[in-house]
Structure formats: structure tokens, C-alpha cells
Amino acid sequence: MRAFALTTALALSTPAFAALPAGSSAPAFSTKGAMAGKEFNFSLAEQLKKGPVVLYFFPAAFTPGCTVEANQFADATDDFRKLGATVVGMSSDNVATLAKFSTSECRSKFAVASASKAVIRGYDVKLSITGKTNRTSYLISPSGKVISVWSSLDYREHVPKMMKALQDWTAAGKTPR
């Protein structure tokens, strides 16, 4: 039992690494999502027609780190929008849970969507032992290419890393739409 606890602790304390490096094609997908408590059908392809997307994966709604991270993305959503980007959170939670999370923790500022096993596999964001998603953020261009990726179970750098990547991308003359 002690060995299992140690293995689990080590697996959860080591950084997560995303398999989709910058320049990769982001897998297209459609799923159910929620915004401001209302469920809707989400399509990455449709969203990318509007501009770049910050697609961030988090382990589970209403857990301490995921709640703080959602609050941080909510606080930064207007700044992302000013640069033409949309924020979308992704987890393996069901849509009913995400609908509640979208109002309370995302503060009705951005959508959250349910990541199927296929999406988790496609983005290589499976948290090793649990089957939930790890904490990985992608900035995806309107053409569907990954501009930037940050993967760490520590929630504190995801918003600043994605904001800096978006600022650098737009400063390089890339058009948001």
C-alpha cells in the first residue's frame, strides 16, 4: 500500500508533458459544452473561424487548483478577447457539472467543454493514473496549428504563458481573424 501511495504521489508531482508541440495540427473535434450555465454544441473548427483559441485542459471541476485556474482565466478573458482569442476550458467532467462550473468558477466569462477519451488521446493530455486530463494549455491559430503549448500540473503559469504567446503571435503581424 505504501508503494502505491508513493508511486501515485510521484506521478502527480512530476510535470506533465504534452505530445503536441508548436507547429502541430490541433485535432478537430466536436463535443458538448456550457457557457453561463447553458449547454451547447462546441466545435473547435467553428470556433477557429472566429480567431485563435486558447484551449486549456484541467483535471476536474471544483477542485482547488482547477477553481483558481478557472478564476484566473475568467479574469483574463477580456484581455484575450481584445487580442482576438477565445478561451475554452476542457475536462473529462460531464456537461451538467461543467454547466455549474461555467457560472460559478468561470464566472460566465468563457465556455467549458467535456473532453471525450478520443479528445484526451488526440491532445495527449491523459493524467497517467486517473484517466482525467492533465493541465495543459494550447494556443491554436485560426488555421488549426498549435502556436504554443504549456503543460504543468501547477496552475499558476497557464494564463501568463498563453497571454504572452498570444501577444507575441499578434506582435509578429499575425491576424486574429
Our count of helices gives 6
User: Would you count the extended β strands for me?
Assistant: 7
The CATH topology name reads Glutaredoxin
Q: Which strand order do you get reading across the main beta sheet?
A: 2-1-5-4-3-6-7
- CATH top-level class: Alpha Beta
Distance between the termini: 53 Å
Low-confidence stretches: 1-16
Order of helices and strands, N to C? HEEHEHEHEHEEH
Return the domain count. 1
Mean pLDDT: 89
What structural class is derived from the secondary structure elements? alpha/beta
| Overall outline | globular
Rg is 15 Å
Instruction: Look at the structure and name the CATH superfamily.
Output: Glutaredoxin
User: Can you give the helix content as a percent range?
Assistant: 25-40%
Outline the structure in words.
This protein starts with a helix and ends in a 6-residue tail after the last helix. Helix 3 packs parallel to helix 6. The chain has one domain: Glutaredoxin, CATH 3.40.30.10. With 177 residues, the chain is of the alpha/beta class. The protein has a 7-stranded mixed beta sheet. Strand 4, helix 4 and strand 5 form a beta-alpha-beta unit. It has 6 helices and 7 strands. The radius of gyration is 15 Å and the shape is globular. The longest helix is centred in the middle third of the chain and has 19 residues. The N terminus is likely disordered.
